Amino acid sequence: MQTNLADFIRNTREGEEAEAILRACVHCGFCTATCPTYQLLGDELDGPRGRIYLIKQVLEGAAVTSKTQLHLDRCLTCRNCETTCPSGVRYGRLLDIGRQVVERRVARTPVERIKRWVLKEALPRQGVFNAALRAGQLLRPLLSPALQDKIPARQRAGTLPGREHARKMLALAGCTQPAMAPNIHNATARVLDALGVQLIVVNKAGCCGAVRHHLNDQQAAFEDMRRNIDAWWPYVERGEVEAIVMTASGCGVTVKEYGHLLAHDEAYAGKAARIAALTRDLSEVMPEFEEELARRAVAVSERVAYHPPCTLQHGQQIRGKVEGVLRAVGVDVVLCADSHLCCGSAGTYSLLQPELSLQLRDRKLAALTDTGATTIVSANVGCSAHLQSGTQVPVVHWIELIDRALTEI
To answer: Lowest CB count within 10 Å: 128, 273, 317, 371, which one?
Structure first.
């Protein structure tokens, strides 16, 4: 794709990166076949190829309108198109650059500004989100059905192990997961403890930065990233931990990109690259223990449908590992039809684009229901909560099944 960037971005770090991505695109259109919003709306501008053209025009100095912003806003950032693309176009990164430019050029309505401000200020702050969620759970019977769907039932977390082990790994508790689904972390800690690994949470580490970054507040997102690096660095520098484990794939895909996102920061570039290299999704850690799990666990005799989050299968390009670990403890795990497609959660997308989000959720649930499974598992708290809002079938993190198999011995 030929480009002629405008002066405002030519010869800048973002401009050079965007130009390289644009030039990699060969207009083939394979990406449209796997784009969820294109499938729903049938508009070229609501598919990756169309959005690439819009971003190209913006970066070349064309007028930016609210229509441009709308088409970019509608993108889930599921990155399914990256998996499909034969040319390796890094669409997700191009979208980040394009959205940031458009955000500076197009004024949002007061309602949109307030909504986005609340999301980026409340969600990343664990204390604020926890208080808001608890209040919502208490008032849930008085709320509208639409709001009730957004508020998960309160979950018991179970106990945390207290033993120390020679093998140690760090874990990111995150911002919303501790309040929405505290058992995910505790189950992970219990499973790893049973396998001889101590899981450590550093209290000063919080939101991974994804929320603010995808709401176009990149500078605040970078501060979130630097805070986490500072919290983890003493353990990394002393060589005390062998990995940084992510139990939410949405956080994992972001932390794995710290090295790239902070490459411009002389003070943090090296540390960020080291943190990114140490980061592992939980599904990358557990296969080492499959034989031991098969020997020690009580078989979970139920049919389970696995929904692989986009942040895992497309963002991190990890497939098949969760299924392997589940099968090691006797789980009959299946994928549904079109398992590559997004469920519609996509971080704050379900709150900002509710109509499209619910259409995608219902499509996904219909496919999952067709498997005949009695339980649905996923690897990201946002996906699980979103899916649970539309079904009575239990939706849990896959590690919770492993925990159950071990604790029922």
So the answer is: 317
